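JOB MANIFEST
job_type = single_chain_structure
chain_count = 1
residues = 347
[input]
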Amino acid sequence: MPGPAMPRQPRLPFLPLLLGAGLLAGCSSAPQRETPAAMIEPQRVTEHRGSDDLLTAGLALDGLRAMAPPAFADAANPTAAELRRRAIWSNWRGIADLSPSGGYGTVYGSVATVPGREYSALATVPGATQPHRVLVQVPDAFDQKQRCVVVAPASGSRGVYGAIAVAGPWALPKGCAVAYTDKGAGSDYVDLDAGVGVRLDGTPGRIGEATDLAFVPQVPAGAKGVAFKHAHSQDNPEADWGRHVKQAAQFALSALASAYPQAAPFTFENTRVIAVGISNGGGAVLRAAELEGDWLDAVVAGEPNVFVDAHGGRPLYDFGTEAALLMPCVLLPLPADRLPQRPLRRQ
């Protein structure tokens, strides 16, 4: 039988979680307590054992290194499990250097087989019109005596598995749960011509019929083309990235209570919470550290993408516009023969 939960340990001034990453320890002059928020209940639970584990979906290092993505048995109708495996393959390759000369899996890092369960849901921060994905991986070897949750928001506009290579290899083999969020960005889209979007499990669903679509845009009747959540949600998700991180942590506590009801409750008082992110995932965990309340134990922010003069964060379109304005300045020093060439069009 599991023993009683250990009391929450004091804040750590340093935590050797990720080499070379910046670390901020959560601290305050006096403990603050918040009114507990309503927990987000898991909407989907799947088991991943044997040839389909949490960390690599059974691909192991050789499978992650493969140039071709994992195949679908029926390319026109991939299953949720096949889509998950391909998403994990893609997100590993987008972050980690898996080349044989890179040293991953031999010099550093882990691709250990980690059996366990996944809990996923669609959560919405107050004031937003569209949800963000939250997903928690709970290893079978979760340490109930030293309760630990690592929260990892995706970088860029990656999907919910976007930070799996950042947090999973350290946390999962050590018995920590990992909570992911796409922070209102991600790869969820809607084919407006076909009226089809992406469901919670990754499979397609028809607008007006599927009740678990990750994104349903508010568009005029007859709108055509493709709408992406990050660009077309009519929200400003960047302003809420800190709240997305905290909501993912709250969802992790709910998922752990479902996984281990005999050890519940899981709270911020008895569970250590560490937020980890790189790039604008690093910016998101820094935003989370700014939130009030004594809920976060430490932050590991690697190469955080932040804009210190913004109030809550700049919208995606502002970044795109600024990049377009600055691009000619970047091209000026280049010799003429290296400039991008655009063929002339006949009038």
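[summary]
Residues 241-259 form the longest helix (19 residues).
The radius of gyration is 21 Å.
exit_status = 0
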